[in-house]
Design a protein that fits this description.
The structure holds two protein chains of two kinds. Chain A is mostly helical. Chain A contains twelve helices and no strands. Chain A has helices at residues 2-14, 16-50, 55-58, 68-74, 79-103, 106-110, 116-145, 157-184, 188-210, 220-225, 234-239, 244-267. In chain A, helix 1 (2-14) packs across helix 7 (116-145), helix 7 runs antiparallel to helix 8 (157-184) and helix 7 runs antiparallel to helix 12 (244-267). The two termini of chain A are 30 Å apart. In chain B, strand 7, helix 7 (171-186) and strand 8 form a beta-alpha-beta unit. Classes of the chains: A mainly alpha, B alpha/beta.
Amino acid sequence: MKPFLTLVRKNLHDARWSLFLSATLLGFLGWLLVYVASRQETRIRQALTSGEGFNWVRRMGLDADPPSIEIMMAFWNHPFIILLVAMFALGRGANAVGAEIERGTLDMVMSRPVSRSAYLGAQVLASSLGILLIAAALAVGAYAATYYNVLKSPPSFRVLMEPALNLAALAFPMYGYTLWFSSMDIVRWRALTAGSALTLAGFIARVIALIPVFEESWWRPWAEHASLFSLYNPVDAVSGRGHVGQDVAILLGLGAGFIALAFLSFAYRDLPANA
Amino acid sequence: MHPTASESASLIVSRGLSKAYGGNYALRDLDLEVRRGEIFGLLGPNGSGKTTTIRLWLGLMRPTRGTATIFGHDCWAGGLQVRRLVSYLPGELRMPGSLTGLGVLKFLSGLRDGEGLDRAEAIADRVMGLDLGKKVRKYSTGMKQKLALAQAFADPVDVLILDEPTSALDPSARLDVLNLVREAKAVGQTIVFSGHVLSEVEAICDRVAILRRGRLVHVEDMHARRRLRMLLVRFEGDQPPPFPEELELTLRRMRGPAFLLEHRGELGPLLRWLATVPVADLAIGTEDLHALYDEYHGPDAVDDDEDRAR
């Protein structure tokens, strides 16, 4: 057990700066979005009641006179939030194997009595903890902000953690497929490029699916279902509408599937000297 | 399959070990045994297959063909058990620069259940003279190599595999490393020493394997080699006298009236025989490992057909 824990500790040490920066920025964003929601709450409520303006909020399923938390969550779809979580997940996935071979540091670890599954397991555990931590930082920032900004009905921390978990689950398959690419490769850039391209394609598919012009197109449901981002719905996560539990399960299942593929690829591959 | 008598005395056994990338063989049909408690040298230029052999032994790569075992554990299927018994110093050493020297030692020993940390600290501090509180990124290449060597020699293992262990070291540190290798042998460890510095290999190895283009071309017993004498002799007259069989003289080369002879036996009978034959001129000397190495890798080395066909 000690080698495994040593590896987990080392991985967390390696990730400490990106973890700190991502968590700090997300915590700040969580605070900022509560501030924005607090300033806009009255206007948004009026718009939802009158049916004029703030159409992007209405499209997220908000009815007239929603609770404050739902208005807050409309802002959690901000691309910055998704970008920060995706960057952490993609970076950690690409670093796991390809980057270690490229740097030549994998030899130092794998020539010790460490199994390949323990090596990758330690990577997955440390990165999953990191993803959970930065998603939780968003909820912590938002919760702290509720004490300093006026909201009609301030949410509890537990309620805020539900969309945060949805966000963490969204990052899990991104981490999974980048880890899979990395576990087959000998350089970092290729896994990172492939992971980023796949993530960007999913994001674009989601954006296209939401454009009103394409609402009647036959391919719109396909584009929507092809995107991971359609499974991230912070408003639904707090309102109880939709099927967030199922969406989170699908995201975690996809992530677990990609991670299983990464374990398989890593178990049977050659580990060459540094590239 | 039951091991042969020589295999049971051997600790590392390779049988037909091959590694190919596409159609190119990095290692081909390696049949080699490393005996328990010996210092075994691996020689050959870059690309000759030394590092590939070591990586196959460590279970880092899967052989295309053949098998390798250490203590009877298959190196690929039982790689984890193998690495419990082996400590490896990579040729191209990279370390996480954000850790201190002590941090690296703690990390590496942590991967072996914390074993050997005290000894590694002692070697790094007292023998290698390293400042373990300093970040590794501030270490020179030689200092990093010393740190890794301290860990390798501290590991409580049966086999040490050292890939170019002195490549970045100053002369005094090289001597320290050679002494540590001798100490490791004295306590019963088996050492595989891969290197390019022939004088070092010659000084410490019990046996040496020479590889060329992925093939094992020669295994030399260094103890027998140290008993080897080279005689350059010119006899009077047209015909040389017959060489007595009991002297075990081997004709290496003949150039005009001069003969280059190898002799591995006792010196007395040789001198007595030389006193009885008409010698016009005589030089007796030894031959270093370089001469043997040059037979396979020197400017006059000849490729065999198979090598050319690869």
